[in-house]
Amino acid sequence: MINSSWKDRATEAFTPNYRPAPLLLERGEGVHIFDAEGNQFLDMISGIAVSALGHNHPKLISAIVEQTKKILHTSNLYLNRPSIELAELMCASGFFDGVYFCNSGAEANEAAIKLARKYAHDRGHNERNEIVSFVGSFHGRTFAALTATAQPKYHIGFQPLPEGFRYLPFDDVSVLEEGITERTAGVIIEPMQGEGGVRVPTPGFLKSIRDRCNEVGAVLIFDEVQVGVGRTGHVFAHQFENVEPDIMTLAKGIGAGLPLGAMVATKEVGASLSYGSHATTYGGNPVACVAGKVVFEALSEPSFLANVTARGEQLMVGLRKIDEKYECFQEVRGRGLLVGAELKPELHFDAKALVGECRNRGILSHIAGLQVFRLAPPLILDESHVDTALSVFESSIDKLMNDFSPVA
Length: 408
Ligand code: PLP
Prior knowledge:
This protein is an alpha/beta fold. The chain has 13 helices and 15 strands. The protein folds into two domains: 4-56 and 303-401, Alpha-Beta Complex (Aspartate Aminotransferase, domain 1); 71-299, Aspartate Aminotransferase, domain 2. It has helices at residues 4-13, 46-49, 58-70, 81-91, 105-122, 143-148, 176-179, 205-216, 267-270, 286-299, 302-326, 351-360, 383-403; strands at 25-29, 32-35, 40-43, 98-102, 130-134, 165-168, 184-189, 219-223, 247-250, 261-265, 329-335, 338-343, 363-364, 366-368, 372-375. Strands 4-10-9-8-7-5-6 form a seven-stranded mixed beta sheet, sandwiched between helices. α3 packs antiparallel against α10 and α12 (351-360) packs across α13 (383-403). The chain starts with a helix and ends in a 5-residue tail after the last helix. Bound molecules: pyridoxal-5'-phosphate (PLP). Pyridoxal-5'-phosphate (PLP) binds next to α5.
């Protein structure tokens, strides 16, 4: 599928921290991607929940092109229109009153963790510095975000990690009272875990955390880097449960393919990110922000989010039908267009093998852990695309089940 010299050149030229599939991607159109040899793939992962509007979206591309002709970068020494307009659009869509722009999810979480500590510090609570996160979470690879990521496999080799982090089991209300205390500056949680296996907490869990944070005076941070910006069928995933945080982090879909992250906060908490306390050179980059504006404008069309909900349902119903036939899934779960199908542990193949088989048949997908087959397609896909994807999933599973059927 790829001229092997490109793979060899990549192996030579890159540090070895990635192991990309042997596909040299060249262009995209809508929900399809084409490789260098002209092979077409249906994109069911959107570059890990990023390409929310698909590829070569006319409005998105023209906004970006027009902005590139005006000015690429201003820095925060000066103002630019797109960043102000995007921040205003964002503030009109949620609980928050202030936006800090950055470039990635890890950076947004780094800012959120710093803000939680600074807010406590500003109130004279220097002993209140603990950050609580949940087992199976993923918050990014920079040091504080990595430390908040409560999965030991990501920590190996990077110790000593920053101090003052504490982990609680995900989706267990019984530990909240003991785990979230007067020493807690902030609690960070994904309203639905993505990398940790597409795990939806029991209704009420987020509310219980909110209540406990209120009791002890800790701030609540929702990491919506993967699940925010329409992915779940709501503008923000926490709107499913009507529980509002004090701080929220966004990235991935907000830039629709350009590097853009944001940390947003209520007026009261956000005020602690006082002048000079935090910054990044590229924050509020005008080109990334015009992309964000197109995304937020798309989200404001009611049919857009209704499609996400309908396609997500269609996908989950279809996967459950496949399960009725093959008995291959432990569980199919998700919200909107972030869907995980957990393979039964006794199967003789893992999620990676299923991803590979789908790729051979023209579908791009991904895993979340060893056992979970993950789908996060562009939010613009239609009914026929989901039908196509489901038929490929079925033929891929059929092949794997037959290849690996246990010896009698
Ligand atoms: N938070 C969540 C929930 C994520 O899923 C990710 C990335 O997968 C991150 C943070 C880190 O984002 P980035 O890779 O842009 O730093």
